[in-house]
Each structure stands twice: as C-alpha cells, then as structure tokens.
Amino acid sequence: MSSIRSLVLMQLMILLNVILTVKASTPAVAKPGCRSRCGDVIIPYPFGTGGDCNITEQFLITCNTSYIPNKAFLRNSNLEVINISTDGQLRILSNTSYDCYNTSYRNGLFYNFRLSEFSINNNKNKFTAIGCDTYALVQGSYGQRYATGCLSFCNNITDVSNGSCSGIGCCQTSIPKDVRSYNISLDSYANHTNVLPENPCSYAFVAEIDSYTFSASDLLGFEFQSRQFPITLDWNIRNTSCNEANMDVNNFACKEYSKCVDSENNSGYFCKCLEGYVGNPYLPNGCQDINECESMSPCNGTARCTNLPGTYNCSCPVGYEGDGKKSGTGCSLPNKDQSKTSPLTVALG
Question: Where does 93-234 sit in CATH, by number?
Fold first, then answer.
C-alpha cells in the first residue's frame, strides 16, 4: 500500500512540476495585476481595462460584464472589440445601414464611425451595398478626406448572381488609405417601387473583404438590418517614426528582444518580437525564446538539437557529414555505411 502511495505522490509531483514549468514559460499578455481577458477577447498590453493597465486612454478597453460571456468595447463607445493583435491591428463589429420602403412610408438608419486614433485598413476592408434600386455613398473627413460609393440595380431578383458584387444586386468599392471615419448614406431612384415587395430595402456596410458573400436571399425582407460585420482597424504607438521613437528612451515602447516597425497605413510605429522569440513586445521580458527543438523537431533523427537564444543548432555524430537538419542535408556517413554508429558530439551544423 505504501509503495502505491509513493507512486501516486511521485506522479502528482511530476504533474505539478510540468504545470509550473508551462506556466513559467508562457509569455505574459497583460501588465502584472491587470485583466488579460474579457469574455473571448484576450487583452494584450498596450491595451488594458483602465488605470495603469493601458499605455494611454486611446488603448482603453471597457469590459461589460452584463453580457454572458462578457463583451469588450473600445474605450467608452458602443464599438464591440472581437480581437486585438500586438502586430498593430484591432477587429471590431460594425452595424449595417439600411433604407427601407413600402407603398406608404420610408424607414432608414444610417451609421457613422469616427476614431481619430485608429484607421480602417484599406487592404482588408471594403464598402459594400446591396439592393435592386440602390445609391450608396460613404464619406469621411478624419485622416484622409474622401467620398466614394457605388450603384446597384436589378429588375428582378432572378437577375442577380450569388457571390457577385458587380453592380447587379450588389456592388463594392475600395476604402482609401488612412481613413479614420465614415458616414454612410443611401438613396433610391424609384423608392424600390419596381422591385416591391421582393426587395424593400437597400443595405450598406464597411466590412472585411472575406466576411461577406453576396446571396440573392439577402435582398428579401428586412432581416439583413440586424447583421453585423467585422472591420480591421490599424493602431500604432504615438505619431512618430521608429527613428524618432528610438531617441526617446524613456517612452520607447519596444522592449527586450523586439524590433520597431513603422506603420504602413498611418504615422506611428508598433513592435514585434525578434525572429525566434514569441510573446508581447511591449512588456519587459515579454518576448521569450522559442524552444525550436521542442516545438519544431527540426533536426535529423541521428542529430542532436540544441536550443540557442533566438535560434537552434543541429549537430551530427562524430564521423558524420551534413547540417543535421531535416530541411537540409541531414547526417550521413562519408562511406555510406549506415550500420556504423558513433557517439554524439556538439558541432555546428
């Protein structure tokens, strides 16, 4: 009985050691003592839920605990956050604007968006409008001042093609670079009278390119009014370049084993862990070395893998040739005699 207890105790100690090792090697996400999650959304620093947890007010995330699961919102707005990346991107949910008709009245709701510190990623989002009697306009003045739009017409729903947004039932247009606001407006040539009751509404929204596929069924009824779509926003640290930020040592956001990257879509910069490291580059010791030997098993079966800071080394046994890597020349005997074996030694591959 005592031997069984000893065995169980030993297994528990091994399990505890594994748990502690994994926990210790897991890179931090938020600042110590700060909330790192709201519902399904992970909140990495420089974002945070208030006080000293976020780098500035711009990066405040409000966690609304009245929802189950909890929902994250940008600052004190009604913009729901669904994902935050330390690579300088943030995903939010946007509402659909609509303009609806019947024989006696018109009912519409046009949404607008304005965030001077964040820009809409012009490569990942588009403006889309659907309807058989639809004029759609999107414009803004924060960041880039712009106005664009598209037209969508069809005589009958049977004329449209699912998956196509070429102007027959559905149209799309690009979003300019460095756009930080939008106002959507919709209008109709004949108040949808020629397509009632099948298509009573026009709809328009800004959304990620791959988040919507047009379907003729979307033209029917009023259900599309409640649809929400994801938008990818770009964020950055301050309005300075990496060269300028590097000179301000006290306020430079990039920590150990990270590099500074100038933002492509607007002024400012963000930080990335160096190759071979993973974690949060905005936290002290946030970027931690990846053990490639465990995560990738990159070495040939006869080679020894040695983890090094930011990289790894494969070493062949004495008397063998090659770089020891699975993706390289591996390890082989010069005389092709695979039956011989030698003790392993550490050598550069």
Answer: 2.60.120
Spans of all domains in the chain: 31-85, 93-234, 240-289, 296-349
φ/ψ (deg, to 5) at 81: -95, 130
**Are the C-beta atoms of residues 184 and 134 closer than 8 Å to each other?**
no
> Which residues fall within 8 angstroms of residue 212, CB to CB, at 6 or more apart?
128, 205, 229
pLDDT tens per residue across span 172-211: 999 999 899 999 999 999 999 999 999 999 999 999 999 9
- The CATH architecture assigned to 296-349 reads Ribbon (2.10)
Tokens of 150: 């598209």
**35: exposed, middle or buried (C-beta count within 10 Å: 0-12, 13-18, 19+)?**
middle
Global pTM?
0.82
* Partners of residue 323 on adjacent β-strands: none
Q: Bridge partners of 179? A: 120, 143
Q: Which of 269, 237, 232, 234 has the alpha carbon at shortest distance from 56?
A: 237
Angle at 103 between CA 102 and CA 107, to 5 degrees: 35
Model confidence over 37-75: pLDDT tens digits? 999 999 999 999 999 999 999 999 999 999 999 999 999
Q: How far apart are CA 14 and CA 186, in angstroms?
A: 65
